[in-house]
Structures are given as C-alpha cells and as structure tokens.
Q: What sequence folds into this?
C-alpha cells in the first residue's frame, strides 16, 4: 500500500506538477475536441437558420429581423448571462497576460449564443471571435478543474483557441499560429506541442461532422510575373481599406455610447438599419461565407460599381452591427471585405490594362482577404496561413506573403495598434511575457518592500540617534509619533551629515527638528509602475510605504533592480 | 498591522446597517474598512485558481450621487478616516476587477440575489463560491446592526475548524472580548477535541483567552444555536461542499445562517490566518 | 533532500510572496502535499542549471561586516604585546627597525619586509600624531600576519619622529593587519582612546600590558554608554 502510494506520488509529481508534457498534451486534445465541437455546433446551427430565413429575406418587413436578433442578443448577453461588453478576444488576451488565463465558466457558451442570435438574424459579424472566446474558456475551465497552475492553464487557453479556429476553418496550422501569435504572444516549445495537438483535434472533429476539404474551394490558379505588380497595388489598396475599416468600427462604437437611448433600443435601431441596407444589398448580411465562396471560385455575378459600393456598405454594416449592440467578431467580415476588395481591384485592373497577363479573379479575391486580414489584425503569419489553408491555395503563397507583409506594414504605420490589441494598449494592459509592463505588474509592492527598518521616536535626542546610526548600516530612519504611532517623517543620514559632524548639536536638537517631512510616500494601493514614476519625478532612490499613516517599510531602487532581473529570468527562461 | 476589510457599499437603509456592522467590526479589531461604491452592476474577483463574477442587484447602483456622501458621513460618525477603493483593472469595459488582496471582506447575507432574499434568505451562491476560494475570512453581517460583545467559535475538529479557532483567538486578542467554544460531539468524547487543541501550538492561547468550552451531543445542534448569546460574533469554518453533496446532506452553513441572526465570520478552505502579528501587539 | 519555502526564499533572495506567486504561475518545480509545498533539492538544482539561475542552497553568510564580530582593541593588543624601555638610535629607520625586531607575533622571515613597508609609509607622511605618540602602520594588508594586532612600544629616550607638532616621540603603537577592514577599525578605536586627555597622561606612566588593556576597556565602556 505504502509503495503504491509512493509510486502514485512520484507519478503525480512528475506528470502533473512540473514535467507536465503528457498531461498538457492529453488535456490539450480534450480541449481541442470540445472547442472544435462548439465551433461546429455554431456553424451548423447558423447554416440551418440562415437557410430557414432565406426565403423571407425579400419581403419588406425583413428589415426588422436583424433588429430583433440584435435585441435578443443584447438582452441575452446583458441580462441573462451578464457578460461584459465587446467581442471577447481582448478579454482572452487580458486573462492570459494578467490573470493566468482565468476565464469564467459562463464565457464557454455566452458568446456562442449571442453571436448566433446576431448572425442568424442577418447581422454582419463573424462567428470566429465568439468561438475563440468559448474555446479558450473551455480550456481555462478544464485547467481549473484539473487544478493546474497558471502556466499550464494558459497553454490550455491557447489550445482552446487553436481548436476553435482550426475547427471553424478546417485549418489546423492557422489555428496553431493564431493562438500563439495573437493570444499567447510567446513561442515556447512547451506551448506549441499541446496547441498543435488541440488544433489537429479541432480540425478532425469538424471534418468528421462536416466533410469538406477546405472551406472555400476554387479552381487552380496560374501565377504570372505581372501578378507581382498587381499584388503590390492590391496591398496598397487593402491597407487603405483596413485602416478605414478599423477606424469606422471604433468611431461608430464611440458614437453609439454617446447616443442618449437605452442600450436595448440602440440594439434594435442598429439591427433595423442593418436590415434595411441588407434588403438592397444582401451580400453584406450574415457571416458571408457563401459570397466568399462565389468570389474565390470566380463566379461572382455582381457588377463593378455594385461591388465597389458593397465594400463600403460592408464596412458600415459591420460597424453598426458590432457597435450598436450586436455580438460577434470581425474575422468573417474581414474575409468578405477582403474578397470584395480583391475583386474590385481585379476588375479595375482589367479595365485599365485589358491585356495584362495576370491570374484569375478568384486569386485576387484570395489575395484581398489576406491583405485585409493582415491589415486589420496586424498578424501577418496568421493571415497568410489562414488564407492558404482555407483555400488550399499554397500555389499562391508567394503573392500571399507579399500582400500580407506590405498591407500589415502600411496599416501599422498609419494605425500602430491592431484591432485586437488597441483597447488593451489604451488601458495599459497589453502585457506580453518578458516585457517591462508584465514584469512590473507581476511584482507587487509586498514582494519588494523591506520591512526590517529601525524606527525612531520624534522625541529622541540627537545624541541617542547618533549612537543608533553608529551601530547600523541603514541610511533611512522613519520617525514615529509617540502618541499615535503615526509616521511623521524620515531622517536621512545623507541630509544630516553636517549636524552629525558637530558634537555641539548632539544634545540640542530632537529628531522631529531635523526629519524630512515632505518626502514622497507610497501606499500599497500603488503599483510598482507608480512607485518608479515617483522615483523618477522626484529623483530619489528610496521611498517609504505608508499605509493608514503607519510606516510599513521602504522600497529601494536597488532592490527593485534585483527582483526585476530575477523576474525577467523567470519569465523568459526556456524551462 | 494594517488589516483591511473590503466593503461593497449599498446606498440603502439596509446597506447602511451592513456598513455600520463593518465599521463596528473594524473598530473592534483595529482594522481599516475600504469601501467600494459599485459603478457597474457586476464585478470580478480573481483568486488563485478561480474567478468569481459577482452580479449586484440594482439597489447597489441606486442614487450614485449621494452614495459617497453617505459613506463619508458614516465614516465620520465612526471616527475612521474614509477610504475608497477604485478598481484599476478591467476585464471588459463594464467588468471591473476587484482586488482579492484584503484581509477581510464584508458581505450581506446575499450579495447578488433578489432583494426579497436579502433579509434572512439563502446564502448567495456567489458568497459561497467566494468563501471557497478566498484567502481571507468573510464577514456575513446580520440584517440589522448589532454591536457584538463576545465571540463564539464553532469547533468541529476539521482543519477548517482549526482555522476558525485561530481566527477566533486572533479576534479575541485584538478586541479583548470573551471567547467561547461550541462543539457538537460526533461519536467522540470531549477529550478527542481537547487533545486536538493540545497537540497544536494553540494550547497556551486557548487557556488564556477561552472562558468556556461547551459540548453538545450530536442531536443538540439546534439547542446549541439557541444557546449562543445573541450578541456574539460567530466564527466558523465553512466546508466547501459540492452541489450534489449539498442536496444530499444539506448545508450546515445554510442552516446556521437561516437560524441565527448573529454576525458570522466564515473561513474557507483557502483561508490563511496567522497569529504572529496578533500576539506581538 | 526536501527544502521548505522559507529556505528557498533565502537561497533565491526573494520574499515568500514571490515564491508563492511563482508556484501559482508554475515557474518552480514544486511538489504539493495537501496544503503545504515542498521542493526537492535535486529537482531544484536541475531546474536552476537549465535556466542559468544561481541557486545557493547552503545558507549564505549574512551580508555586510556588521554581522561579524570585529576584532577589539583588547584582543589586538593582547596579540601584539607591550614592550618597554626600547633602546634605539636617534632616527626613524632605526626606531622602526628595533621595534619590529621586538614584536614577537611577526614571523622572523618577514621582519625585514615589514620594516621596509613601515618606512615607506613614514616617508610618505609621518605617523607621529603629536603629543609624543606615533602609530606606524603599513599601507597594504600583510598576508603573513594571521590575526590583526596592535603592538605598543615605549622608547627609552624620546626620538625626533618628524611628528606633526615636532615633539619627540616616545610611544609607538604598531598596527598590523591581514585585511584592510581591520585597519580602519583598530585605528578608530585607538584614536578614540588617544583623544582622551586622561589616557595620554596614563601612557606617560608606561603601564604594563594588563594595566593598559584594563584602561582601554574602561575607556571604551564609558564611550559607548
């Protein structure tokens, strides 16, 4: 019995606590299956409901459908599950970078349901961000259930994301890369294997249920040299469109917050506006996978001017849907927008140079998608592999690389933070592992503070104090009130030197006459960043921490450097 | 030591009673209340291995313009310098994170359920989850402000009950109020419990501060509840039951809190209480 | 070997809160038993080696010289000894040469070197403090000396030592030390005594070793009171 227990302990220690590769791989596979299942469920239900509503779309009253959908979605999110606002991806990144990947259980389904309501009724939004949110929440909660630590839990969050993306797009590599590039932000060996397994599991689940080879099938392309010039032109165009898209999204969202109507009414109005536009231009509605399919295969029937108009209407409709109370992501709208842009560009190019030797319209739709995706997300790797995988278009990989890199560079110059990170950066909570912000947020004042200080009384005679400094190596002595025990000020050895050298002063002065009362103090409510700011502004190396008028300890720059370095090693080590 | 108690203020007469309770508690054990006036109807608390979302009902958000004044007035009355908590981090724009770095937290009987249940109803599920995760004890205030004059520790012999006993001692040392221990015997005789204390490092303190140790036979639980003085603070350890266990066995916590009106101070399985600073003072 | 959190705090030089956070974040190889954590020395060493973290599992010496007990003047004088009625030539080199020969605690092989060093120091600046007292000492630590020492030498006849006040010197305190930190300490302890007028008078009586040590002890006691 005893031996069994020892073996158990050994295994437990080996597999669960530190050398946890096996556990993470197994758990990653499970997470991938669940996340993939959630994605497939959303896709299937969306497809069937969209099909159900399709015949009613041409009626005039159909404009109200997206309104009702957005309203239901808002009410569900705000009143039933009481979720926070937004599409969820920043929340996942926040949880990973600041909270050890802790996500609430309700997040596993809340966004699925609300985005389903929005998209199924016709709102222009993507099902990917909600699926990412629930996939990550599934990973996080499985990690919680197994009692894993932060690092392991974060890996499982990444697994959930990868599984969800892999499943909804049939794109395991894109899932892996999206998860590492956008959500986790660090390429560590220990993360990659479980995430890859989860991505494969997610993709397999979706393939088992929806048997299709890739999401958007097309005829093979023939690439010509002229296409290089064409793609450079397209990249400039997509960068422009993606900046317009990002800005419109934010403007409309900000406008909605200022509109003095109650949120539920806002959702209804926004939805109806979307519905009205949708009657005249049905391609802007829904997640838009179907029009993309047509464009990629080169069978898109609309005229040039209509498509051109469609680009801007799609931007507007998506902004209204998401900004005014609907729920969903921008992934699918980006794809629609990208393919529309690509087709518009192709048609314009054909108009100007009718005899140019370039590839087909479908290829440009594909390149346009890559351009917009990398422009909006500023994650070139994710978009290249995603586009290549969902179209099976590895023959165009060269052009994809070109468009992606130019487009993301350009939009990065104009709009330095990507759509997913912008909120977090503005709140100062975009913290990748190993960065300054992350280290400062991890180190709390409690860990740095030095409490072993000798306090002195305000009524102490200077001679007595001289004896104290003689026998101690401190440079700061906090002065405490005799009556209340409150902190009054600080005696710094450096500033009393001239008195200390003159014995005539020894019996003449009390400490409260020479203490420094206007030294800046910090409290435990401040974080390390604030404290460093104080030190910078006032040019000091030590700062006392005073809590409720009581002296708690000192923080010194030397100690901060010491711990900062240790923390940096801990965060960036290879393990 | 700087002990801090987190209080989530509700700007209603009922909330005032709860806050008075917090103030009294802090004054008695020399802690500092920190008040959070909610601005959104929900917030998150992150613990080591869980995140708890607390949904507040609308009464917490009512009359936001007078809330701060009311709090300051009550602080002044108690002679404590007012102190407020402002959330620094937000998971989403409407979802602030409340720090879990407190030493105590005050909660009304239910922090999140409907007002009808506030009086003497269920213990909110959120409160229970918080007790399970929190590293600090939670003060479940009586519906009406009551100045307690003694401390009663419910000691059942588990590790958690031991924690509660330590906490009871700590409060007895800080407040100077008499401490009584109440134990319901479950099959064992009294000596088993006494030995348990003897084997720990607490023996000396128990001898010094505990004025009486009352034992009841296993069916005498309700009698015990009646015999606990009405003006005493009950300190007890909660055992984190799962949902199924709760349905089958019923929750003792639930029974206690629906039977007595006293203030309850509950320690959860993750509570860490040290006596160090208390004995120094 | 099992290592507790408190021990690890010391060897990594961080606070308990930090260790607990690292455990929670999964950055340390820890094994958990119920609610207590423990570490295995072997795992920790492997982990530290892999990540290039300096890990000192044996308790490190406390920082600063504060913790060590400094050598007192009392013991230094005991090691060095007191020598009376030294008959020397009229100039500095001969004084030093004779005195060094007398000091028993210096190994004979190194006496020549010591004399050389002391003379160099005198050339730079005389160590004659005035009031008939000089404290010859070398500039650099001597590695052939085991313990720091102070040797008191009373000359038979006062000698012109180029002292600050041009008074002839009759009393010399040789300060010899194996490490620099003793030097300053002994020097300050000695000068504390020499500043005392009573002590200077007392020195003129050419006291014996035991008397001198006793006097120093009482002086130091009153000073620190």
A:
């Amino acid at each position: 019995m005893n031996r069994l227990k020892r073996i158990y302990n050994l295994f437990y220690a080996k597999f669960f606590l530190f050398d946890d590769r096996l556990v993470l791989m197994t758990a990653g596979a499970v997470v991938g299956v669940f996340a993939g299942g959630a994605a497939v469920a959303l896709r299937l239900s969306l497809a069937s409901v969209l099909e159900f509503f399709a015949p009613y779309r041409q009626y005039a009253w159909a404009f109200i459908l997206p309104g009702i959908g957005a309203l239901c979605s808002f009410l569900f999110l705000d009143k039933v599950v009481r979720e926070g606002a937004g599409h969820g991806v920043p929340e996942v990144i926040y949880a990973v970078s600041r909270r050890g990947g802790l996500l609430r259980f309700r997040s596993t389904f809340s966004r699925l349901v609300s985005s389903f309501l929005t998209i199924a009724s016709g709102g222009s939004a993507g099902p990917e961000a909600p699926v990412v949110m629930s996939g990550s929440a599934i990973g996080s909660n499985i990690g919680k259930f197994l009692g894993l630590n932060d690092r392991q839990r974060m890996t499982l969050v990444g697994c959930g994301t990868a599984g969800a993306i892999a499943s909804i797009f049939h794109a395991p590599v894109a899932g892996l890369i999206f998860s590492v590039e956008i959500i986790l932000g660090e390429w560590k060996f220990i993360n990659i294997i479980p995430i890859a397994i989860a991505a494969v599991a997610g993709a397999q689940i979706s393939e088992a249920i929806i048997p299709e080879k890739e999401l958007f099938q097309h005829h093979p392309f023939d690439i010509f040299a002229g296409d290089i010039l064409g793609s450079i032109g397209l990249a400039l165009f997509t960068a422009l469109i993606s900046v317009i898209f990002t800005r419109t999204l934010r403007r409309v969202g900000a406008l909605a917050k200022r509109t003095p109507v109650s949120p539920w009414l806002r959702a209804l109005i926004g939805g109806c506006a979307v519905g009205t536009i949708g009657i005249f231009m049905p391609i802007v509605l829904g997640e838009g996978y179907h029009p993309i399919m047509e464009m990629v295969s080169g069978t898109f029937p609309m005229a040039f001017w209509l498509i051109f108009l469609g680009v801007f209407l799609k931007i507007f409709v998506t902004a209204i849907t998401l900004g005014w109370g609907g729920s969903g992501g921008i992934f699918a709208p980006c794809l629609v927008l990208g393919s529309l842009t690509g087709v518009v560009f192709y048609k314009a190019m054909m108009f100007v140079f009718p005899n140019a030797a370039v590839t087909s319209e479908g290829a440009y739709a594909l390149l346009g998608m890559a351009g917009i995706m990398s422009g909006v997300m500023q994650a070139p790797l994710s978009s290249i592999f995603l586009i290549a995988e969902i179209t099976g278009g590895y023959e165009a990989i060269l052009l994809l690389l070109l468009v992606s890199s130019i487009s993301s560079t350009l939009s990065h110059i104009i709009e330095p933070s990507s759509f997913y990170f912008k909120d977090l950066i503005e709140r100062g909570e975009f913290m990748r592992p190993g960065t300054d912000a992350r280290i400062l947020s991890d180190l709390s004042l409690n860990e740095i503070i030095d409490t072993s200080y000798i306090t002195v009384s305000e009524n102490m005679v200077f001679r007595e104090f001289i004896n104290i400094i003689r026998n101690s190596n401190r440079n700061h002595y906090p002065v405490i009130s005799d009556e209340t025990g409150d902190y009054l000020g600080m005696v710094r050895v450096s500033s009393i030197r001239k008195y200390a050298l003159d014995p005539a002063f020894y019996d003449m002065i009390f400490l409260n006459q020479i203490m420094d009362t206007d030294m800046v103090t910090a409290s435990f409510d401040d974080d390390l960043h604030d404290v460093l700011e104080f030190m910078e502004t006032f040019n000091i190396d030590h700062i006392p921490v005073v809590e409720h008028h009581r002296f708690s300890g000192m923080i010194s720059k030397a100690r901060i450097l010491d711990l900062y370095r240790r923390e940096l090693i801990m965060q960036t080590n290879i393990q | 030591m700087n002990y801090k108690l987190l209080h989530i203020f509700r700007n209603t007469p009922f909330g005032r009673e709860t806050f008075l309770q917090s103030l009294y508690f802090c004054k008695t054990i020399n802690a500092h209340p920190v008040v959070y006036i909610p601005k959104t109807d929900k917030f998150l608390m992150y613990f080591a291995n869980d995140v708890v979302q607390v949904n507040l009902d609308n009464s917490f958000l009512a009359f936001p313009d007078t809330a701060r004044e009311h709090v300051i007035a009550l602080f002044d009355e108690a002679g404590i310098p007012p102190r407020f908590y402002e959330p620094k981090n937000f998971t989403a724009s409407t979802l602030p994170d409340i720090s879990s770095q407190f030493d105590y937290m005050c909660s009304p009987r239910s922090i999140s359920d409907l007002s009808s249940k506030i009086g003497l109803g269920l213990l909110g599920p959120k409160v229970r989850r918080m007790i399970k995760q929190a590293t600090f004890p939670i003060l479940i205030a009586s519906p009406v402000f009551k100045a307690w004059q003694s401390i009663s520790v419910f000691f059942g012999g588990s590790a958690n009950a031991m924690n509660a006993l330590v906490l009871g001692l700590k409060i007895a040392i800080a407040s100077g109020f008499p401490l009584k221990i109440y134990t319901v015997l479950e099959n064992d005789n009294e000596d088993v419990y006494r030995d348990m204390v003897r084997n720990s490092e607490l023996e000396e303190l128990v001898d010094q501060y505990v004025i009486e140790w009352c034992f009841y036979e296993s069916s005498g639980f309700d009698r015990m509840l009646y015999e606990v003085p009405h003006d005493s603070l009950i300190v007890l350890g909660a055992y984190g039951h799962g949902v199924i266990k709760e349905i089958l066995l019923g929750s003792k916590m639930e029974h206690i809190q629906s039977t007595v009106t006293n203030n309850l101070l509950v320690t959860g399985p993750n509570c860490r209480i040290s006596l160090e600073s208390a004995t120094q003072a | 070997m099992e290592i507790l959190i408190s021990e690890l705090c010391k060897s990594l030089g961080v606070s308990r809160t930090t260790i607990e956070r690292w455990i929670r974040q999964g950055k340390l190889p820890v094994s958990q038993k119920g609610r207590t954590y423990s570490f295995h020395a072997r795992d920790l060493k492997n982990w530290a080696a892999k990540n290039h973290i300096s890990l000192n599992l044996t308790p490190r010496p406390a920082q600063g010289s504060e913790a060590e007990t400094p050598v007192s003047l009392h013991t230094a004088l005991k090691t060095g000894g007191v020598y009376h009625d030294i008959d020397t030539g009229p100039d500095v080199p001969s004084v030093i040469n004779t005195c060094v020969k007398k000091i028993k605690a210096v190994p004979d092989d190194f006496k020549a070197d010591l004399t050389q060093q002391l003379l160099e120091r005198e050339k730079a600046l005389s160590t004659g403090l005035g009031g008939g007292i000089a404290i010859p000492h070398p500039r650099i630590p001597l590695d052939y000396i085991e313990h720091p020492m102070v040797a008191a030498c009373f000359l038979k006849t006062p000698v012109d030592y180029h002292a600050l006040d041009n008074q002839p010197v009759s009393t010399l305190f040789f300060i010899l030390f194996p490490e620099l930190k003793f030097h300053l300490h002994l020097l300050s302890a000695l000068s504390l005594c020499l500043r005392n007028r009573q002590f200077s008078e007392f020195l003129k009586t050419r006291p014996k070793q035991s008397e001198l040590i006793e006097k120093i002890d009482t002086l130091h006691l009153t000073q620190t009171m």
Q: What stands out?
A: Residues 2-209 of chain A form a domain with the Clc chloride channel fold (CATH 1.10.3080.10). Chain A has a mean pLDDT of 85.
